[in-house]
Write a structure and sequence with these properties.
single chain, four-stranded parallel beta sheet, 0% helix, catalytic activity
């Protein structure tokens, strides 16, 4: 069994956490498992003229890439929070067994 505990908030962004034999994540504050966002932007401008007249073109392209946090545990997992547990764009998986999400506040699970 593995254990990760912190006195404040525990935040994992785009991380891969592997508790192969099962384990516990615990924080006195919030537990945040969230996707990492990467953005690439390309701006281009061109202009010129030809036999038909002049022209001007511009384009803007922006691509977002999300990398989920994955939390893998063997047969049991406990996530405990003194405040909220927030799982956004991330995955929790077990080989078999049970997962317990225990928070003094809210448990929020959503897409990125």
């Amino acid at each position: 069994m593995s254990a990760i505990g912190v006195g404040g908030d525990l935040t994992a962004t785009g991380a891969n956490i592997n508790l192969a034999g099962g384990g516990t994540l615990a924080a006195n504050g919030n537990v945040n498992l969230q996707a990492a966002r990467s953005t690439s932007t390309v701006d281009s401008n061109s202009s010129g003229s030809d036999g038909h007249g002049s022209y001007s073109e511009s384009s803007h392209r922006s691509d977002d890439t999300l990398t989920a946090t994955t939390l893998n545990a063997g047969n049991s997992l406990t996530v405990a929070s003194g405040k909220d547990i927030n799982v956004t764009g991330s995955a929790i998986s077990l080989d078999m067994g049970t997962a317990t999400l225990a928070a003094a506040g809210n448990v929020n699970i959503g897409a990125a």
